[in-house]
Amino acid sequence: MSDLPEQRDGAKLRLATCSLAGCFGCHMSFLDIDERVVELLEQVEACRSPLNDIKELQQADVGIVEGALCNEDNVRVLQQFRENCRILVGVGACALTGGLPAMRNHYGLAACLKEAYLDATGVVNPSIPSDPELPRLLNRVRPIQEVVKVDYFLPGCPPPADAFHELFAALLQGREPQLAGNLVPFD
Ligand code: SF4
Predict the structure, then answer these.
(1) Whose CA is nearest to atom 3 of ligand 1?
(2) Pocket lining: 93 vs ligand 1, CB cutoff 6 Å
(3) Which of 19, 34, 78, 171 lies 20 to 30 A from 150 at CA?
(4) Which residues of 18-40 are buried (b: 16+ CB within 10 A; e: fewer)?
(5) For residue 14, what is the enclosing H or E element?
(6) How far is CA 127 from CA 55, 112, 132, in A?
(7) Sign of torsion, CA 13 181 67 26?
């Protein structure tokens, strides 16, 4: 593959990660590579990630995106990742298909807001939030490849830790990831 990052002498692979409409379960699964993370961190530098709470995105070799697109801010962050990351990887069912967040697509945005903020049991002073600081919801939850080109996907909810490990091993070695069998669950 031509656009895999080339290993620069002594330079670490610059990694950016984000969770859009996701639950951070995919990030947690990555951490399940356990002690192998120590070796990985000798070769990878997290330049933007909830793992170290750095929110500014600079040029990165690899961008990992968890979660679907629920609102306009998700779209903005995703486009920023595409513009600044040489390789973009979508991780998890939510990024790939919309996953759990896309269940609201069956009912429509207005019906979901009415149910959540006006009609739900226990709601006090029912009103639908309208603060301009809140990002506007999309009418429909969208998978990320509907908006940007995605170079790789790790499927699963969440993808197995070994799939993350194979992805990073391949990127560091400049080869195609070997993802097959148990590494590609479609649950
Ligand atoms: Fe969470 Fe599963 Fe979606 Fe990952 S794919 S963000 S684990 S619900």
Answers:
(1) 94
(2) yes
(3) 34
(4) bbbbbbebbbebbeebeeebeeb
(5) strand 13-19
(6) 31, 13, 15
(7) negative
Question: What band does 73 get if pLDDT is binned at 50, 70 and 90?
Answer: very high
Q: Is the CB of 63 under 6 A from ligand 1?
A: no
Per-residue pLDDT tens for 13-40? 999 999 999 999 999 999 999 999 899 9
* pLDDT digit string, tens, across residues 137-173: 999 999 999 999 999 999 999 999 999 999 999 999 9
Q: Which residues contact 165 (CB under 8 A, 6 or more apart)?
A: 33, 36, 40
C-alpha torsion angle, residues 93, 97, 102, 103 (rounded to 10): -80
Q: Which residues contact 120 (CB under 8 A, 6 or more apart)?
A: none
Helix, strand, coil % in the chain, rounded to nearest 5: 35, 20, 40
Tokens for 116?
């959540």
Dig out the tokens for 94 from the structure: 């939510």
